[in-house]
Amino acid sequence: MRNPYGEIFAAPGAKGFSAAGFVSRMPISMTGIGIVTMLSELRGEYGLAGAVSATFALATALIAPQISRVVDRYGQSRVLIPTTAVSVLAMGALLLCARYEAPDWTLFLCAIPAGCMPSMGAMVRARWLVLYRGSPHLHTAFSFESVVDELCFILGPIISVGLCVSVFPEAGPLAAIAFFTVGVLLFTMQRGTEPPAHPRAEGKTRTVMRIRGLQVLVLILLAIGAVFGTVDVVTIAFAEEQHHTGSASFVLATYAAGSCLAGIVFGALKLATPLPRMLLISVGITAVTVLPLLIVNSIPTLGAAVFVAGMSISPTMIITVSLVERLVPAARLTEGMTWTTTGIGIGVAAGASVSGMVVDHAGPRAGFGVAVGAAALAAAVSLAGYRVLRRTAPRTSETTVVHSAAPAAAAPVREGESR
Deepest in the core among 165, 230, 395, 411, taking most CB within 10 A? Predict the structure, then answer.
């Protein structure tokens, strides 16, 4: 029986860079929650812990696209090592400041450069693009990486929180540093699959965010990210209200597991549906599947509800990345993919903040209303931007997600163009 996932690893170097990419992505889900756990253990201040973690998250979201922009110009191996060094050194300083009771402002000062983390998910996907651009295997490869992302979000918090609680408070973020350093080093050592650099003439280069279609995608993902942030915060509050705080991690793992399962199935499908229409359907399903969160009354029903809600996540991410590949010029793809991650990151921070305030004033069940509202906003933006995506994506993407034969470089929308 044909195994589409086995086929994508037949290319030389595919297993190596994908495995290294998995290791280097673990800090995505380990660092923020590790900072919160560490500071709450050392200083007993959840407000401070959350603020420092949010500072790190926002810094990462805003800095990562700039790093990817430089990567597109000079290549992965020349850029990832120095930026990783900056992030690792700043995170080490943050841990030392926390341990030795330095003033609170030093934690924020360290959290900003610690956010100098490259978007390793975008780096890995850029390598798959080199291997399989114009091939049916590209859809499968993107689906596989979406599953890997979900595995990181299942395993990362468990490892980070477990180490902070059972070993010493800084152990979780310290493990994240180790994963990040080793993963990036292994990744950059594999030069054979590295995408070519695209040096440009001196002068100011316009950001790919001027492309209208990419603006639509980032706005959709910002709203989707708000759903993620809301579910994280409100699930913990709901579990505490039910006197089963420890079950929150299980419920959140179930959320990621639903997405993981859907990603595996979606990656094996051959769907002859235009990408913009697929995105509209997927985001619409997200809006519908979060509605049961409003009526959950126990931990088991919450687990079932988030499992179902999670099943639209991976397909939405896969479709989004496929659209970015068609909207953004080949020389700027890493930056384009990283902007989608930035949209999610900012959305997560906004959703967590707003839902936290709602929970404080009206309780967890009302907090889930923020997720419903954010999902409805994502659906509305998707509907409003449908024409833009149809107009700006090349016609080859209107055929199928897996049978496109035209390279993204042939897209009618070029760098900086706006309609």
Answer: 230
The number of angstroms, rounded, from the C-alpha of 17 to the middle of its chain's C-alpha atoms is 18
CATH number belonging to domain 208-419: 1.20.1250.20
What is the sign of the dihedral through the CA atoms of 345, 348, 115 and 167?
Answer: negative
User: Per-residue pLDDT tens for 82-116?
Assistant: 999 999 999 999 999 988 888 888 999 999 999 88
Say which CATH class 14-195 falls into.
mainly alpha
Helix then strand then coil, in percent of the chain rounded to 5, is 80, 0, 20
Asked if 214 contacts 333 with a C-beta cutoff of 8 angstroms, the reply is: no
Amino acid making up residue 4: P
CB atoms within 10 A of CB 418: 12
Q: What are phi and psi of 204, to 5 degrees?
A: -75, 135
Spans in the chain with pLDDT lower than 50: 201-203, 395-419
In this predicted model, what pLDDT tens digit does every residue of 52-67 receive, in sequence order? 877 888 888 888 888 8
406 secondary structure, DSSP code: S
Place of tokens 């595995």: 151
Domain pair 14-195 / 208-419, same fold: yes
Q: pTM here? A: 0.72
Q: What ranges do the domains of the chain cover?
A: 14-195, 208-419
Residue with tokens 């603020």: 51
